Amino acid sequence: MTQLTWDDITEPFDDEKEVSKLKFYRDQDNNNIIPIYISPSEFENLLYSKDHLFIEGDNYPFLKIVSGHLEGKVNLIYIDPPYNTGNSFAYNDSFMNSQDNHSTWLSFMKRRLELARQILADNGSIFIAIDQSELYVLKLLCDQIFGEENFVNDFMWLHGKGKKDRWSRTLQQHTLCYAKNKRLLGAFCDVEVTDWAKSNPDDDPRGNWFSGSISFTEKRSNPKHKNFYELVSPSGKKWKRQWFVSLEEMETLLATDKIYFGKKPEYDQVPRIKIFNSEETEIIPKNIIDTVESTRAAQRHLDDLLGEKQLFDNPKPVDLIEHLIKITQQPKDALIMDFFAGSGTTFEALANLNSEDGGNRRCILVQIPEPNMRNPLITISDLCRRRIEAVCQKTGEKVLFLTLK
């Protein structure tokens, strides 16, 4: 594996003494006037509570503080970190003043990703949004931290008209996905609505359909698997192999004429499942995501939600994050973290999914109070909080607002 090397740029919070000086505070009342100190034991109780948490503060010391409490407990992490595009980014100006932006960015990311790996569940995964400016070095960095063998894919989101220069137009943004341990990571799954069936080989009154595989070959079948059984066609031809469904499910499919054995009267083809137009089908997720909103649509949604235009540049679409959460098939009570919370898209996606399927997914968000170039009167963390509060009014979710300083 190619080793990535750079000059490490230190941060003040590398020093545990500096971390120990930080304290957590919460709002004393709904007017957010006087913050109240929270003891370490009180914070630990909040960390394990059922409420969502929003922490205003630097994510590096936060991750160091919670790494012991949450080790191996976070099911999914989504982050949209600074892209190192040449603009400064607001994490400790004293160390960001380095002339070597490349080394600074890698040092910055390495510290946070190592802690992210520590808190990920053994069957968990992390999604990292990135553009092309640091895509390839981020891939190498993640290979070193998570292991090259734990790379899942680059889920590329087609975000609209894209960015152009004199030579090309870039239509995609990247989302690198890594597992904590790919051997323990469950299969990802997406749902697709069929609309392309053009034929009806057996004149089924339900209309056009196409056939899909519903079994392994005899060679690949496991005779000890619970779904290994014999199926007999109307003509008496037998197939004994491992099927994708249980015997009980297969009997339902047979009773509803959803299994195709080939043309009558031979009925001698390998059984396949009939899939009709408008039916939902489980598929392996594509790494090209072209079914979610554009950047412009995401911007309009955020503007409408906050009642003010363009307070935040280039928010991610809510349905993009919903899609990534869904395909992982994590449980409905999953713990999800976003420690570059930005405008709070991850929280809105999670709240929507809880409303949709009755889940109890829990979210921990962290955002530093960095300046908002669009409106210097409010910070990015202020904006994130406003979005969270607006989403809570719609969905009934409860969030505890804390400050780390």
Q: Would you kindly provide a written description of the structure presented here, covering whatever features stand out?
A:
- With 405 residues, the protein is α/β, with parallel strands linked by helices.
- Helices cover 29% and strands 25% of the residues.
- The protein has helices spanning 16-20, 40-47, 59-66, 93-96, 101-119, 135-146, 247-255, 295-306, 318-328, 345-357, 380-395, and strands at 24-27, 35-38, 52-56, 74-79, 120-130, 151-154, 156-164, 169-179, 190-193, 209-212, 228-232, 238-242, 259-260, 272-276, 280-283, 288-289, 335-338, 362-367, 399-404.
- Strands 1, 2, 3, 4, 5, 6, 7, 8, 16, 17, 18 and 19 form a twelve-stranded mixed beta sheet that branches.
- Strand 1 (24-27) and strand 2 (35-38) form a beta hairpin.
- Helix 3 runs parallel beside helix 5 (101-119), helix 5 packs parallel to helix 6 and helix 9 crosses helix 10 (345-357).
- The longest helix is centred in the first third of the chain and has 19 residues, at 101-119.
- The radius of gyration is 25 Å and the shape is elongated.
- The model has no long low-confidence stretch (mean pLDDT 91).
